Amino acid sequence: MIEAVALRKHYGRTKAVDDLSFTVRPGRVTGFLGPNGAGKSTTMRMILGLDTPTGGDVRIDGKHYAELKQPLRKVGALLDAKWVHPNRSARSHLKWLAVSNKIPVSRVGEVLEVVGLTEVAHKNAGGFSLGMSQRLGIAGALLGDPEVLLFDEPVNGLDPEGILWIRQFMHRLAEEGRTVFVSSHLLSEMAQTAQDLVVIGKGQLIAQTSTEQFIADATQDHVRVRSPHAAKLREILAAHATVTDDSASGALVVHGIPAQRIGEIAAENHVVLHELSPQRGSLEEAFMQLTKESVEYHSH
Ligand SMILES: Nc1ncnc2c1ncn2[C@@H]1O[C@H](COP(=O)(O)OP(=O)(O)OP(=O)(O)O)[C@@H](O)[C@H]1O
Q1: CATH number for the 220-279 domain, one of 3.30.70, 3.40.50, 2.60.40, 3.30.420?
Q2: Atom number, ligand 1, closest to the C-alpha of residue 12
Q3: pTM (two decimals)
Q4: Which residue windows are transmembrane per the record (predicted)?
């Protein structure tokens, strides 16, 4: 469990993190979302003791990072996948990490296997693709078999296969009961990966909730309807709901009544339907809606 209470980090007049409180629970993947410059990386660095808060507090299972006796056994982190020595092999990089953190070297083979790098473990990490580097970074984070895992933008720049692998891997880590905290800009990806969200803007908390609730609160569900008698149907439905046209597709967009009721009304009026599809709001819509006040630089 990670707990931040009234956390602050000011750089001169810039309030990178400003009175931020949130909790990240075990057994779930929690997404950390916010526009550029919202303070995500700064927060992660404070969790890991790499930056000192200006005020407030952040603890991992009740302790500050600096108080952890064997930090890598409690917290694993992937902040920057490219920080390995380019002339070191993947295996020797992990061995060095293990030895310097008093972790049995036997773990190296295990984590290489877990991330699927066993066959290339003898190769220099400098020649690794981004996807392989991410896997190596994750192997390093897993060395101490930690309960808490932090990933800063782990899918940035990855191909679809790499993204899918990371998504499934995070789910597995959470199913094992670990606390998984992951920041990302890729909202549709986060919608599929994270069960819970901590959303920040300008260093402040915008929402802490389940992904499902976040989307439901910030967007409106609606129903798409297509009919060869669209004009007649629009007129009939207008007595029951708000109806607009999606000019690109020729569909009607209906807010205010469920698909089932629309089907009944159409049947009662002998109107043929070619499509009747409930639409859920997306995480993108919800995010734009809730963070529009918090984006540092707007495009006009
Ligand atoms: N070392 C620093 N010195 C001065 N300002 C900083 C420093 N680190 C971060 N900032 C500022 O603090 C704010 C938050 O930055 P941070 O990198 O934490 O945001 P972020 O949400 O991770 O953004 P991104 O998604 O773009 O990486 C920004 O305005 C940034 O310019």
Answers
A1: 3.30.70
A2: 4
A3: 0.81
A4: none
pLDDT at residue 34, rounded to an integer: 86
Confidence at residue 248, expressed as pLDDT on a 0 to 100 scale = 83
C-alpha distance from residue 253 to each of 215, 259, 264, 297 (Å): 19, 11, 17, 32
- Report ipTM for this prediction: 0.94
How far is the centre of ligand 1, averaged over its atoms, from the C-alpha of 128 (Å)? Answer: 28
Which tokens sit at 176? 């094992």
Query: Distance, CA 66 to ligand 1 centroid (Å)?
Result: 22
The answer for 128, left when phi > 0, alpha when psi is -120 to 50, beta otherwise, is beta
Q: Which of 219, 257, 217 is nearest to 236 (CA)?
A: 257
Q: Quick one: average pLDDT of 229-246? A: 93
User: Which residues lie across from 2 on neighbouring strands?
Assistant: 24, 60
| Distance separating alpha carbons of residues 206 and 179, to the nearest angstrom | 21
42 CB near ligand 1 (under 6 Å): yes
